[in-house]
TrEMBL record:
Residues 46-197 form the Trehalose synthase N-terminal domain. GO terms for molecular function: glycosyltransferase activity. Residues 278-463 form the Glycosyl transferase family domain. Belongs to the glycosyltransferase group 1 family. Glycosyltransferase 4 subfamily. Keywords: Carbohydrate metabolism, Glucose metabolism, Glycosyltransferase, Transferase. It comes from Flagellimonas meridianipacifica. It comes from the Bacteria. Homodimer. This is Trehalose synthase. GO terms for biological process: glucose metabolic process.
Length: 487
């Protein structure tokens, strides 16, 4: 178990100074006064399984900074595991909660699951005091609650960031496997009402995930910084950008032979200011990268075959690049599937002809360096014409909210979380089936060729985020739960 230090960042006054957030902050301060007073003297312990990558690691630092500024004591612990079998199992649990995999869990699985959590217990017990409040995130540390409660008198909350709308045999079976641990929790938090398993409905709150508008990933970026980052990513070859070689070697871009290298030293791509569409996610099959790439290729081929080379529509589609970004697998320890998914993508890329290769950039981002990673994601999203999240399943796609905050139109699948975040034809397009290459390619082409709608949808998206999905709305709900469960 490791205690994670949180670096300084934006303060409440910085948010107030950001025009459209001013009243949001005042409302937050007013609504949370009583709850904050009621947990005085207690420490909130957040426990998850990774300090980098993924939604939990993304949001915790900002939430912790704001709460600390208001005098709340809050700490972050990450469980450690050396056994590959543990992360294999937790990945299978993760997939099963999303309804995929065979849903089979054995007693041997349970042994690994509990043994790893037990190894992390001693440190947790040294730190946590009676009366504190513990929050366990996602399935990986789930067995800890029973172990902690044997020794400490603390309320424990389970925060589940994933879920599936409908019950299936696979989801039933994984909830059965986990049911041994749920009894020890005092309260549950899910992202959407539809994700709550029947057995947990009575003690549950709903908190949709949110973004920090002033984090490195979301704050306004200076133009020169953006260009420098895009240059480094092989998205532009504006030679001015070479001045900003601070970003050199941070991103690796796919090369025609399927290897990855610093893009502008090894390939001359002639890519000055081409429009592009972006999906940034973990290399997970459920993120629908391969389907997106196929749809993009289909759009390009259809355009060449049927488009009128003199038309604006033809030129727009011809110019457009696809950017797919995800973590350099070298830095992600809890995602054994990632390497395989990336290999499938790079193999498909290698098969393409050179023209098509030049239209697609697969980028490996430096997740080991959270600040630089965040700035790169920020620049890529800001410079995109469209943000795509083509997930087969998605509990709640933070990337969609990040895109909307940046006034970008979204193209998403009808995965439950995304359907809740994006309003069809108001903040983007919902393409019902992420594996339907034909309809996805049409949706892409439609959005590329309707810039006015894109602008309008982007504007609507930003307002929607301010009203519903910032860390302030989220913290109001968290504090209500803390006040409710405290002993
Ligand atoms: N992300 C990132 N770098 C990457 C891939 C993803 O910073 O290479 C971020 C992304 O911007 C988002 C988070 O990781 O903030 C992923 O959250 P999301 O809810 O989209 O998916 P999850 O990983 O939680 O399934």
């Amino acid at each position: 178990m490791q205690k994670i230090q949180v670096k300084p960042g934006a303060k409440l006054n910085d948010y107030k100074a950001y025009g459209s957030l001013y009243s949001l902050v005042l409302n937050f301060l007013e609504q949370t006064k009583d709850a904050i007073a009621s947990i005085e003297g207690k420490t909130i312990w957040m426990i998850n399984s990774t300090a980098i990558g993924g939604g939990v690691a993304e949001m915790l630092p900002s939430q912790m900074r704001i709460l600390r500024e208001l005098g709340v004591s809050i700490e972050w612990l990450v469980i450690e595991a050396k056994e590959d079998a543990f992360f294999d199992l937790t990945k299978r649990i993760h997939n099963a909660i999303h309804g995929s995999g065979d849903g089979k869990f054995t007693e041997a699985d349970r042994e690994v699951y509990e043994a790893v959590n037990k190894q992390n217990l001693t440190k947790a017990l040294e730190l946590i005091n009676d009366g504190d409040i513990v929050v366990v995130h996602d399935p990986q540390p789930m067995p800890l609650a029973a172990m902690i409660k044997k020794i400490k008198k603390v309320p424990i909350i389970w925060r589940c960031h994933i879920g599936l709308e409908e019950d299936t045999e696979v989801t039933d079976s994984v909830w059965k496997f986990l049911s041994l641990y749920t009894d020890d929790y005092d309260h549950f938090i899910f992202s959407l009402p539809a994700y709550v398993p029947k057995s947990l409905k009575s003690k549950t709150s709903i908190i949709p995930p949110a973004i920090d508008p002033l984090s490195h990933k979301n704050r306004a970026l200076q133009l020169h910084k953006s260009i420098g980052i895009l240059y480094q990513s092989g998205i532009t070859d504006d030679h001015e950008a070479i001045l900003y070689h601070r970003y050199n070697h941070l991103v690796r871009r796919i090369l025609p032979d399927g290897s990855f290298g610093p893009p502008n030293q090894t390939s001359k791509l002639n890519l000055i200011y081409r429009p592009f569409v972006t999906e940034i996610s973990r290399w997970d099959r459920l993120k629908g990268f391969k389907e997106l790439m196929d749809a993009f290729i289909k759009m390009k081929k259809d355009n060449l075959k049927h488009g009128d080379p003199e038309s604006l529509e033809y030129k727009r589609i011809k110019m457009t690049l696809l950017v797919m970004g995800g973590p350099d697998p070298a830095f992600v320890s809890d995602d054994p599937e990632g390497q395989e998914v990336l290999r499938e993508l790079t193999e498909a890329y290698q098969e393409l002809d050179r023209d098509m290769q030049n239209d697609i950039a697969i980028l490996l981002l430096p997740l080991d360096n959270p600040k630089e990673n965040a700035l790169i994601v920020n620049a890529l999203q800001r410079a995109s014409s469209i943000i795509v999240q083509n997930s087969i399943q998605e509990g709640f796609g933070l990337t969609a909210t990040e895109g909307m905050w940046k006034r970008k139109p979204l193209l998403v699948s009808a995965a439950a979380g995304l359907k809740f975040q994006v309003e069809h034809r108001k903040t983007g397009l919902i393409n019902e089936d992420p594996t339907d290459i034909e309809s996805l390619s049409k949706a892409l082409a439609y959005m590329l060729n309707h810039p006015k709608e894109r602008d309008k949808w982007g504007f609507n998206g930003q307002s929607r985020v301010i009203q519903n999905f910032t860390l302030f709305s989220q913290l109001i709900s968290w504090l209500e739960v803390f006040a409710k469960v405290k002993e």
